[in-house]
Structure prediction request, 152 residues.
Amino acid sequence: MDFALVIEYIRIFITTKEHIRDAGRDTLPLNVDDDDNNDNNNDYRRSSPIWPTTIDHPNHIWLLIIAAGFHLIGNVLATFFIGDATPSLLFGLTYAVTFPLYVYFAYLDTNAASVLPQKRIYLPSTPAWKVTVISILSITLSALTLRIGASL
Prediction:
């Protein structure tokens, strides 16, 4: 499933990027400086957030790809070095990175949805043959990973 997740997130990013390009304009979320509803009245006493509150659309989808990829790499390393405890511990620690990135994506996506009149994440067309190809590719990559791990 980890291989399929990375593939699907990449497909979502590419599809969203193509729809934006076809629309002929780069869409929001708005930069905080350009937001007309920004009512801080130049109050510099407010602390600025550590992470940005918005990221140019659709670049926030990269958070999903990075999180899934990071988890996949940890899973593959734990499979390759199954007799060693260190990769297994590192794989467990990938959850400490992956889930906060997913939560941060949800925060950014929710923030973007409140600024935009409609949500602008486009899901790719997924006919049965694409599902089959992605499933076969994911199962093949998983089997290959297990085979390499067993031979090491």
Observations:
- The chain is about 65% helix and 0% strand.
- Helices lie at 2-23, 62-80, 85-115, 128-151.
- The two ends are 23 Å apart (CA to CA).
